[in-house]
Records
---
Amino acid sequence: MSVNEGPAGRQPTATYDSPFLKACRREPVPHTPVWFMRQAGRSLPEYRKVREGIPMLESCMRPELVTEITLQPVRRHNVDAAIYFSDIVVPLKAIGIDLDIKPGVGPVVEQPVRTRADLARLRELTPEDVSYVTEAIGLLTRELGATPLIGFAGAPFTLASYLVEGGPSRTYENAKAMMYGDPELWADLLDRLAGITATFLKVQIEAGASAVQLFDSWAGALAPSDYRRSVLPASAKVFDAVAGYGVPRIHFGVGTGELLTLMGEAGADVVGVDWRVPLDEAARRVGPGKALQGNLDPTVLFATREAVETKTREVLDAAAGLEGHIFNLGHGVMPSTDPDALTRLVDYVHTRTAG
């Protein structure tokens, strides 16, 4: 280990000792660290300017553009961590799946995965498939200095939902039909996606990411028994695959209040909580030995400054007894959010929790 490396063997000591990583490890912090899901994105005018005329997936494959977009909220908001700018379907595109991200719709898959023959189209991901990720993270870690970079990927269930449905869904009827009607094919699909996801996270960690987050955005559509039987094994495989790197692993889903106990079992070090469950109750459900992340309702940011501060205090008060807490929203920053409201929120959390 060189003198410039921290105990993780990969990150500079200043990064390893950052409030964000300390909170992930449930260590004492000088203030509650803050970052926001979707902090690099549509709420920022500078983001809209640099993305003008560039399709989403193309923008994810331009290392210098990715670097600029990832850095924008760090410069503007003084957040305690950056999150790598990408999209959860990037590794699927990289292995040749015909898909696009349509404005106002989301990811759309030209040929949904519905049969075992379709499964054969999901080949393994290699680092060479996403060499632009390695290049971008190299640029970012040099620019970020002591600010940690969070890598991320979509969880197997959420990726499977897009692939089987062919796009966004409110009911997941095709995905659930496969899960219930052909459990062997479903298990093979999620296992294949777990391997792809694990490789994508490994690439980011090996390039210099200080932590990783697994987004299971649509897991809240599942009953706990279905999650345990049909989803948990694949998510656990992902977390186990990157455990040896020693970087914090975060697990997040929306509407997952009834799944928090199971999500705590999947293997992450930090469990993200949406706004529906207070953090003290979430801690009881998740169980000991985990830090929590969250959980201000994103819509609160449209209210008055006084209301934002009141609701923020409620979150901080609920988190007061936790071993580790990272302040975040209960979901991503909404596109029409006033960026100044986010900047004020970071300052308020830092000031209120300092010392």
---
Amino acid sequence: MPPSPRHKNKTLTTLMAAALGGIGLHRFYLHGLRDRLGWLHVLSIPLSLGLMSARPQAPQLFTALPLVLSVLIGCLEALVIGLTPDDKWDARHNAGSGRQSESHWILAVILVLTVGLGAMGLIALLARSFDLLFTGGAFG
């Protein structure tokens, strides 16, 4: 991959991955429109909608599972991006920009919120899955 002359902000990328990671916006910011994993994130939306329309009687958690997993993967990617040391980030994404990244306190806030929301989402996914699988949805 040739170095990009445009400086890519680690904090902005982390925020995009945390907030819009389910649609892969952070992947396109980093790697451009040729990123296959970014398109896989985008594909989760029509795939989930197609499953919902094909199986309207099925629990929405299962038909929307591609999108739910894409959002959780986006949270995980936000943590990986945010916890990458600045020098490693610059070597990988800003080799030709001539600027150096400097993480600030806002990145720590984004990471803490991402951990909290990601953990709540994962716990909710597990709880609802067990409810649907073992009780047939008796608790909701």
---
Amino acid sequence: MTNPEFNRRLARATAAWVVVVAAGSLAAPLAHANGLEADLRALAEADPADHVALRNDLIHDGGVSTDALVEVVGSTTDWQVRLEAQAVISWRTDVARAEAAWSALPATTRAGFWRFTETDLTDPVVTPILLERMAHGDEHAELRGALAEVIARTTGEDIWEAPFAAWLTTEPSAFVREGMVHGLRDASAATAIPALTRALSDPSPGIRAEAARSLTSHESGALAAEALRDALSDSDAGVRAAAARALGVLRVSASASEVAALAADPDAEVRLQVLHALDRLDRPRAAAVAVGMQADSDARVSRLAVKLAGGAQ
């Protein structure tokens, strides 16, 4: 179940933040906010070994009201400060649920992956705690990857978007980065498109391919069309295939000639996605290209080519 008090405070803070940004004013609404922001900044920069003690001090600090924390959430443009304030609010709002989220462990799926299955962990009341774990919990890569997956399933809030976008440039584990890239397919366009565009240049080919797939699934994915067209020349076949598919699904008609140029790609999956994409982008071109692919060495490609060639011979 959701916590009405937490949701009320979070909604109020979010509304205040929108008003502040829209007005172009970044001034703290209360005189003491700068000092509190400095404390929260120190908390954000603390080593994992020191973080819990500092966080607990702030939770129990009688001189810092929860309303003051809400004001900081609503006024700051620093996502790290905002996250620390939200985490402290969560701890104060429901300590039992916060403790459970801080210590929860994932289950192992049949495929051997770790995944959190508790539905309570997708409630916004504990999302700041899970993000706090990713930032300060000193968890190993598999657990951080499971945290990223469940955080992206949070219902009704998007406080995880800015951390994910920022962590993509600093997270050392490709496994965790891939989980965050996957989650960003559900983020707002303002956050997702720049972050996923950058991810198309990630050192890991798996992440580059996942970025293309996430853009395919995003309603505004076509905004990254130029980066996806560049990805057609990626050194990794999986990335080329994902980029071709994305351009087709997103109906980026201007890319048809570049996609068609991959009809002779050495990788069968790339050739298959080229045909699928051309079928969406330019049917006459798809039929013409398919004529020369009907005898392809891959059965999937040849079957589709025969179908698309139709009467073009």
